[in-house]
Write a structure and sequence with these properties.
globular; 4 strands; Amino acid/polyamine transporter I; two-stranded antiparallel ribbon; 73% helix; mainly alpha; two-stranded antiparallel sheet
């Protein structure tokens, strides 16, 4: 099948869903353009900052469009491109976009509260503590993984037989790293100008484009040749600043500028598919069992997370975006629209991988990122763009996918840690509690543990990331069900996604638990690998059961109250 046809079918479905289903949900739940949002009511110039809708959209999309939509779609293509495509489209429309929009909506309607605080309000304090603890640990895994990914991308050296030498891609990697540094610098300048001048419309777009181009020009002409360890230090230094500085200073302008890159990347891929219109060389379906991945159910639904549905997205929706929305009418494009665009990115990544495969259906070699970046770079070269420019651009885009998630997840990790130890009356709280809730201390603690995880090997527990992420989405969905039920709004559209995601995640966790127990029984299990995974898997199952049971009780209680009111 032609890849262009696949992209067009997906685009039509996703756009139609936004125009019809997304707007129907907004109408059903209720959007009040005249209501004062938390950003307006609690404007503190730090976390609560009233922001233009397009800028908030850019922040949401840049934060959620991390490594997931590219990696997951390409990895899961081992089952065939058709089941991946169907899950991306259906999952993105009815699962992911609904979850992201619902989390944003619930947070805005509840004074900008994060998911943890929403769980406390509608489910109870025990659920809150468990959820926040899980969120913090989840953030540590993401910080470690993405920091390592960024450092690997910019690393200019290779080690062969204990000898360190410059790699063949040292200049390109160094240029991409330099672009990132200039990107941060110009983003800060952009943020200050935005804060002082309040640019909007075409002026804001023009200035953002100018700074984006300047970052690329400066970076490509002044490559920074550094090793992996140094880039990890730089990455952690940046995300510390991003987590404690006001949103308007670095994060929002950087996300805004990054969106231009992502759009350019997607446009380059789409134009390449239009003009080259290569065939989808990957097989449509390979079977329900894959030797390396396992069974199609539940592995497909766990592997393709960010392109279809991701619990992490809800943390962004309720943790940062909800505190910057200046008008409720922007919630649809921020919550639902950003996820729809990410689903399209996942489809494009799938098609690029399909075009890169050989005619006999053999998948291209390399990591998903390597396959995607080399494929799009090849498309750009087809239009006459110099090889060095195309490679630098794609390397930067790949790193930006991780970087924009990295700073958001660090800020969310800091907030989760603060909320875990905070009480209602912080003014009269114990001294140790005040210290732990200090934003600098909580950020530092979060990053210290994240850094330790990069050293001991985050990959040892990363196999459970997909299950943890999807379990998070299930927990968010049931929380949203309780919120909608209690507030008299329809929750019927959220019940099927919640039930399905709960079945998916618990099936995946049980499968992983059995395989880990078998590994220890056979004497092949290692504590730092299988042992850590086993501990995390058990904790996830306990967390899931606890919150589901508690939430179920709240739903039944709300049902009884509703029936009693009707009878009265």
């Amino acid at each position: 099948m032609n890849t262009l046809v696949i992209v067009l079918i997906a685009a039509v479905c996703l756009i139609a869903a936004y125009a019809l289903y997304g707007r129907w949900l907004a109408k059903k739940w209720g959007i009040d353009p005249n209501a004062k949002t938390p950003a307006v009511v609690h404007n503190d110039g730090q976390d609560y900052v009233p922001t233009d809708g397009l800028t908030v959209f850019a922040h949401q999309f840049s934060s959620i469009a991390g490594a997931g939509p590219v990696t997951g779609a390409i990895q899961a293509a081992a089952f065939g491109w058709l089941p991946v495509l169907l899950w991306i489209i259906l999952g993105g429309i009815f699962f992911g976009a609904v979850t992201d929009f619902g989390a944003l909506y619930a947070s805005v309607k509840n004074d900008g509260k994060s998911m943890g605080l929403l769980i406390e309000k509608y489910i109870g304090k025990t659920g809150r503590k468990l959820f926040l603890g899980f969120c913090w640990l989840f953030c540590l895994i993401v910080i470690a993984a993405f920091a390592d990914m960024v450092a690997d991308t910019f690393n200019a050296y290779v080690v062969t037989d204990g000898v360190q030498t410059l790699s063949d891609s040292a200049t390109v990697n160094g240029a991409a790293g330099s672009i990132s540094l200039f990107f941060i610098l110009f983003a800060a300048v952009f943020g200050v100008l935005q804060h002082k001048i309040k640019l909007t419309g075409w002026k804001e777009v023009a200035l953002g484009l100018v700074f984006t181009v300047l970052a690329f020009v400066c970076g490509m002409n002044l490559p920074v040749i550094l090793g992996k360890d140094m880039w990890i230090y730089i990455a952690f230094a940046y995300i510390f600043l991003a987590a404690v500085l006001p949103m308007w200073f670095v994060m929002q302008p950087r996300d805004y500028m990054s969106t231009f890159m992502f759009i350019g990347m997607i446009a380059g891929a789409v134009l390449g598919l239009i003009f080259a219109h290569p065939d989808m060389n990957l097989p449509a379906f390979t079977g329900f069992q894959n030797e390396s991945l396992g069974t199609l159910f539940p592995i497909l639904f766990v592997t393709v997370a960010c392109g279809a549905v991701s619990g992490f997205h809800s943390l962004v929706s309720s943790g940062t975006s909800s505190k910057t929305v200046s008008n409720e009418k922007d919630m649809l494009k921020v919550g639902y629209g950003a996820m729809i665009l990410e689903s399209l990115l996942a489809v494009v990544a799938l098609c690029v991988a399909g075009a890169a495969a050989s005619a006999d259906g053999t998948a291209a070699t390399g990591t998903p990122f390597q396959i995607f970046s080399s494929g799009v770079a090849g498309f750009l070269e087809m239009f006459g763009i110099p090889v060095y420019v195309a490679q630098s651009f794609m390397t930067m885009c790949v790193s930006a996918l991780a970087f924009t998630t990295l700073d958001s997840v660090c800020r969310i990790g800091r907030m989760s840690f603060q909320e875990l130890f905070s009480v209602d009356d912080m003014e009269h709280a114990e001294g140790w509690r005040k210290v732990l809730c200090n934003k600098y201390v909580s950020t530092l603690i979060t990053l210290v543990f994240g850094y330790i995880l990069t050293q001991v090997g985050y990959s040892n527990i990363w196999p459970l990331f997909g299950s943890a992420n999807q379990l998070l989405s299930a927990l968010v969905l049931i929380t949203l069900c309780v919120f909608l039920k209690v507030t008299g709004r329809t929750m019927k559209t959220l019940v099927p996604p919640f039930v399905i995601m709960l079945i998916v995640t618990f099936t995946a966790l049980i499968q992983r638990f059995i395989s880990l127990v078998q590994a220890f029984s056979a004497g092949t299990g290692v504590f730092m690998v299988e042992g850590l995974q086993l501990i995390v898997a058990v904790l996830l199952m306990i967390l899931g059961v606890t919150i589901v049971v508690t939430s179920g009780k709240e739903l039944l209680h709300a049902e009884k109250e509703e029936k009693a009111e009707k009878q009265a």
